[in-house]
Amino acid sequence: MKYRIILLWIGMSFLIGCSVGAPPTPQPENPIVSLPIVESAATQGTSLLTPETLATDTSTQPVSTSFPKPALTTCRSPSPLTPSLTEGPYFKSGSPERTSLLEADTTGTRLTLTGYVLTADCQPVPSALLEFWQADANRVYDNSGNTLRGHQFTDKTGKYILETVIPGIYTGRTEHIHVKVQAPDGPELTTQLFFPDVAENQSDRIFDPSLVLPLTPVGDGQVAEFNFIISLQ
Ligand code: FE
Q1: Distance 89 CA to ligand 1 centre (A)
Q2: How many A from CA of 92 to the centre of ligand 1?
Q3: pLDDT tens across 119-170, in order?
Q4: CB neighbours of 117 closer than 8 A, spacing ≥ 6?
Q5: Residues in the chain where the model's pLDDT stays below 70
């Protein structure tokens, strides 16, 4: 009997010793939670302008809710179509596809133009063709090459971006950039963009104040946002 008690005591001591001396059970580390990156309207639009710098329409017309935020500040349904203007004598086909017209020797004030191609009810027009051409800062069009000429297509949100320079003013005209905009299988819009506070705007018979770019200085350049409102048929 005494022998059994001794064996029981030894066994219990062994079990207690194991439980006391055993290393603590490792607790699982807090898992690293990867939050989904929610693409915000701002990142979709990648607007170079803050909402505060965008023109605000105070009309009471309903705002389309199906479009990224930057355009909501400037497109209100129904929106008037962008007016067409004369093509002028210097358009030529076959420009390179590119979003930047800047080259190593390009001089002038840098201009970054962004915006959307939209329908009158503020719906984006993906894959719309935009063709830009303009005079350089010295008022010269390149009619033999493709300097300051280029075409591009809007992305799936209808967005475009153009890097260029502010053109010089040539005789008889004010500062302007020529552009053609066309939805896939849609009619072609030919128009021009103008610049604010240019004295020649007053004497230019083609000038249209609704096509003036709202410039904002950034660094040593200018940025502007402009939406083209086009018809699909
Ligand atoms: Fe021109």
Answers
A1: 7
A2: 12
A3: 999 999 999 999 999 999 999 999 999 999 999 999 999 999 999 999 999 9
A4: 124, 125, 128, 130, 154, 158, 160, 181, 183, 227, 228, 230
A5: 1-73
C-alpha 169 – ligand 1 centre gap (Å): 9
Note residues around ion ligand 1 (Cβ under 5 angstroms): 88
- Two tokens, residue 158: 């209808």
Report how far ligand 1's centroid is from the alpha carbon of 53 (Å): 28
d(C-alpha 50, C-alpha 38), whole Å: 19
> In this predicted structure, what is the pLDDT of residue 154?
97
Share of the chain above pLDDT 70, in %: 69
Q: Residue 177 is inside which H or E element, if any?
A: strand 176-182
Residue 177's nearest CA partner among 148, 153, 156, 215 is: 148
Q: How many CB atoms lie within 10 A of CB 81?
A: 13
